[in-house]
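Lab meeting tomorrow. Please check the following:
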Amino acid sequence: MSNELLQAFQLLKSKQWVDLTHTFGPDSPHFQSFDAAQFETLFDHEQGFFAQSFKFAGQYGTHLDAPIHFVRNARYLEELDLKELVLPLVVIDKSAEAEANPDYTLEIEDILSFEAEHGEIEEGTFVALRTDWSKRWPSQEAFENKGADGNNHAPGWSVSALTFLFHERKIKAVGHETFDTDATIDFHKNGALIAEYYVLEQDTYQVELLKNLDLLPPKGAVIFNLVPKASKASGFPVRSFAILP
């Protein structure tokens, strides 16, 4: 017996699936203000079964930030609707620019150039910024990329580009390969993560520390963001993956 849902399932299973999630552990790169993760064995097979304890910040490894992460009185992770977590995926490739300039910041002009080649970004999409920063995993030092000034140097989004995407293109969510939404040069200039605050102020979520964006097309894929439903959580490690067209 078959129906439209099962036919759609078979179609999805026939496509290529791409894992967008880093495997993380105590030695993985993490935001410098957080302690390293702690994994502990509680019981082993000699005791009858294998069980572990895990301790880490909610924003650890590839993770999803809920609005409450930065915005007071906003939604917790558990309040995100299931259909929000599955979205059409757009990937803007700025890996060459980020390699040439680790302080690279995506601007509106970059979005317009992308649209000139690939068509206008559709409403309700998840837009990912590809910088290939994920290829620096699993080195904390390479991820931070400290300069002679002692500051981190990593690419990110400008507030103007995000404003354009959310208000003019009416996208739903964003993701990137770095620790933060903001380029680190903007963080040091502004003294705050204003781009990250802006995204979460839109009553939506973002996914950080994505990988394998280089395996995805600019348009046509779908992203799934599967995340545990921890009570009153501001964020949590996520299993993100894409299905290619």
